[in-house]
């Protein structure tokens, strides 16, 4: 009976050691959870950016106002008979 008890205690010790120090132990699980949380945050940022870009593409496909707005903001274009005044604040 004593031998069976020692074998069971040894097996319990082995399982417990594997739980804490093994390849799929608690520290590894915590590390993987942190990586998953970080990746989910990155995915959320990418999803928001993709939604914004999709809205811009839809605007470009359906209306001319966004094209004019981009031409004015990024290229400095003006309409005929329109005067462009650039103002630089004093330092």
Automatic annotation (TrEMBL):
Entry coiled-coil feature ranges: 29-70
Periplasmic topology ranges: 22-91
Cellular location(s): Cell inner membrane
Keywords, in A-Z order: Cell cycle, Cell division, Cell inner membrane, Cell membrane, Coiled coil, Membrane, Transmembrane, Transmembrane helix
Cytoplasmic side: 1-3
Keyword Cell division attributed: yes
Entry superkingdom: Bacteria
Keyword Membrane appears in the UniProt entry: yes
Membrane topology summary: Single-pass type II membrane protein
Listed NCBIfam families: PRK00888.1
Family note: Belongs to the FtsB family.
Subunit structure: Part of a complex composed of FtsB, FtsL and FtsQ.
Record function comment: Essential cell division protein. May link together the upstream cell division proteins, which are predominantly cytoplasmic, with the downstream cell division proteins, which are predominantly periplasmic.
Protein name (Swiss-Prot/TrEMBL): Cell division protein FtsB
Originating organism: Sphaerotilus microaerophilus
